[in-house]
């Protein structure tokens, strides 16, 4: 596709790393050529003025499960990337499960790239997986351009993606330290005090996966991070008190970073009474006090990134009718909703647009090795933009979401902030329910 012509978008709220200001962003050949005062745009450049709307950097979602090939009936590249575009996400990074095959070899990565080619509405990159029998595959996967290496310290739910732990991490961390590629970890580690709990309500689910599981895992990861000085990124932190571990790791200068997810910032366990499988995810959604601590840690810069952990499955796998919690698939689909969930949650907090852009765009772009072109409104970067109304409140209707299966725990939730346009490399990927540019998404590789 040809690069779009030179043009500019302007508003009173252009979110740059240095702050939010009235400006025009001049776009040329899909990149940001300049950020200038509105009346300094050269007369031959057409300008579209968005007045009070916010022009933010496109979101970089480093945690999305697309499931294609192999489980495309759960979610596929076309539906997931359209949902992303509708949510202002301009780059997403696909997790190595739950596709089939899982992305644990270069051959599987190439299968995935072939499946994605030509059906992505936004730019897409890939994480690889670490399992007990693929240690020799990790370096070739890095050479092939994966953004991170994902491991589970507990059962992943998939037989073909077994858990790993200290033994495998010690073997792989020297390589990741040398290559500066993060180990992404699902950090729950059971202990001998764990007891089987029959799940009748959400409190039972919480009791079955206590905070100590997260603590066990994070203690080990912090020690390994200090020993190998390899980048380790804990995904989907749910516990509020454990944020202090990341504060101290940062004080010590360790490359230990952490993500949380929209559902931990929006819901809380006291609100969830029965065992409604739509809310099943691991770690579980914890108490209201945890939620408050997660927000504090975000605002203090202790939590680095927010990833959706978009993890869909067909509705029948949720077993809503029978309420069979144990066999219900865990995972929440929200790639399209991250921005309005976060912005609504911020209503009672104080954080400027620039901080939101760090959590949702700049920090994840740095994590996945794409910060030279993604995650910022800055000269030379890709013109990936999310143009949104920060005052609009609206109610989620699952049927109107773009991802494959419409079942969502956010059904009926009031959110705040609505995406109106999404530009991917200067091309209009999304506008008011339409996708004018088509499947223009590129498949990206991490920079060496
Ligand atoms: Zn995940």
From TrEMBL:
GO terms for cellular component: cytoplasm. Its cofactor is Zn(2+). One of its GO terms (molecular function) is cobalt ion binding. It comes from the Bacteria. Keywords: Hydrolase, Metal-binding, Zinc. Pathway: Nitrogen metabolism; (S)-allantoin degradation; allantoate from (S)-allantoin: step 1/1. Belongs to the metallo-dependent hydrolases superfamily. Allantoinase family. Belongs to the metallo-dependent hydrolases superfamily. DHOase family. Class I DHOase subfamily. Homotetramer. Catalyzes the reversible cyclization of carbamoyl aspartate to dihydroorotate. This is allantoinase. It comes from Lacipirellula limnantheis.
């Amino acid at each position: 596709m040809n690069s779009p012509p030179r043009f500019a978008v302007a508003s009173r709220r252009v979110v740059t790393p240095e702050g939010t200001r009235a400006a025009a962003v001049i776009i040329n050949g899909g990149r940001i050529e300049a950020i200038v005062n509105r009346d300094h745009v050269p007369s031959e450049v057409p300008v579209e003025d968005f007045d009070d709307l916010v022009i933010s950097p496109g979101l970089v979602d480093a945690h999305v499960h697309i499931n294609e090939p192999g489980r495309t009936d759960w979610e596929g590249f076309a539906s997931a990337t359209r949902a992303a575009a509708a949510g202002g996400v301009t780059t997403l990074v696909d997790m190595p499960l739950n596709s089939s095959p899982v992305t644990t070899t270069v051959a599987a990565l190439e299968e995935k790239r072939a499946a994605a080619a030509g059906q992505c509405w936004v730019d897409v990159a890939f994480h690889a997986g670490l399992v007990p029998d693929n240690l020799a595959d990790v370096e070739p996967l890095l050479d092939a351009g994966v953004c991170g290496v994902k491991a589970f310290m507990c059962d992943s739910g998939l037989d073909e993606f077994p858990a790993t732990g200290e033994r495998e991490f010690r073997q792989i961390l020297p390589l990741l330290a040398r290559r500066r590629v993060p180990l992404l970890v699902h950090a729950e580690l059971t202990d001998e005090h764990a007891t089987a709990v029959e799940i009748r309500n959400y409190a039972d689910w919480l009791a079955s996966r206590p905070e100590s599981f997260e603590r066990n895992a994070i203690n080990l990861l912090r020690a390994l991070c200090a020993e190998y000085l390899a980048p380790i990124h804990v995904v989907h932190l749910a516990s509020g008190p454990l944020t202090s571990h990341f504060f101290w790791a940062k004080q010590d200068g360790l490359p230990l970073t952490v993500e949380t997810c929209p559902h931990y910032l929006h819901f809380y366990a006291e609100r969830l009474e029965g065992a409604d499988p739509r809310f099943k995810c691991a770690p579980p959604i914890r108490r209201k006090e945890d939620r408050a601590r997660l927000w504090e840690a975000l605002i203090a810069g202790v939590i680095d990134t927010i990833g959706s952990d978009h993890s869909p499955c067909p509705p029948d796998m949720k077993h809503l009718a029978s309420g069979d919690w144990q066999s219900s698939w865990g995972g929440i689909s929200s790639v399209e909703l991250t921005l309005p969930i976060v912005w609504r949650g911020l209503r009672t907090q104080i954080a400027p647009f620039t901080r939101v852009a760090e959590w949702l765009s700049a920090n994840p772009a740095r994590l996945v090795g794409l910060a030279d072109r993604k995650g910022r409104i800055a000269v030379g970067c890709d013109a990936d933009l999310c143009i949104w109304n920060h005052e609009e409140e609206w109610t989620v209707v699952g049927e109107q979401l773009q991802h494959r299966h419409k079942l969502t725990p956010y059904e009926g939730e009031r959110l705040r902030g609505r995406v109106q346009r999404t530009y991917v490399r200067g091309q209009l990927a999304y506008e008011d329910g339409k996708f004018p540019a088509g499947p223009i998404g590129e498949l990206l590789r991490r920079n060496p």
